Amino acid sequence: MADILTVTRQALLGFDVELVDVERAPMGVLRVTIDRPNGVRIEDCEQVSRQLSHVFDVEGVDYRRLEVSSPGVDRPLRRPADFVRFAGQRIELRLHEPVESRKTFVGLLHLESEDPARFSLHWQDDAGQQRVLPFSCDDVDRARLDPILDFKGKKR
Predict the structure, then answer these.
(1) Do β-strands 65-69 and 90-99 pair in parallel, antiparallel, or remain unpaired?
(2) How far apart are CA 2 and CA 77, in angstroms?
(3) pLDDT at 131 (0 to 100)
(4) Quick check: 39 and 2 in contact, CB under 8 A?
(5) How many angstroms separate the CA atoms of 12 and 19, rounded?
(6) Are 144 and 75 in contact (CB under 8 A)?
(7) Contact 40/53 with Cβ under 8 angstroms?
(8) pLDDT tens-digit profile of 101-138?
(9) DSSP letter at 143?
(10) Which of 1, 15, 33, 79 has the fewest CB atoms in 10 Å of its CB?
């Protein structure tokens, strides 16, 4: 069997999408998560699904059902390029090692330097003080976007 991640990446080279994740789920489900700078449309998912179905058949990738979707509003950040792209956004960050007795922080992501990739998280402590947490991608256990959503809508 071919390496699914490599096969998927190669199959999507001609598409205007970014491969976020490939995951094997129970019951033979293969989940492919894609993203675009202006958001994923249903047509993008359909095109990618058709392309991957053909490629996976040719490459002998074993699966029962293929799911192609967007990463959603709480998109995971995995690569340094993800952190660079979403600088200025609110994120939830979980570190491998605790800093001041905590591993999880929520705040605004800032790019400090690109080479080497260094970032900082501007967050507020329990006393309401603004704090800055410098980090690199090697320090991160997991990270995701953490937008504030307003479901109130317009008043009539």
Answers:
(1) unpaired
(2) 26
(3) 93
(4) no
(5) 8
(6) yes
(7) no
(8) 999 999 999 999 888 889 999 999 888 899 999 999 99
(9) E
(10) 1
**Structure tokens belonging to residue 134:** 């410098």
Copy the structure tokens of residue 89: 């956004």
Among residues 86, 70, 75, 79, which one has the least CA distance to residue 144?
A: 75
DSSP assignment string, 89-112? SEEEEEEEEEETTEEEEEEEEEEE
> Minimal CA–CA distance to 134: which of 122, 147, 144, 146?
122
DSSP state of 79: S
CA dist 8 and 56 (Å) reads 8
pTM given for the model: 0.81
Q: Which parts of the chain register pLDDT below 70? A: 1-2, 153-156
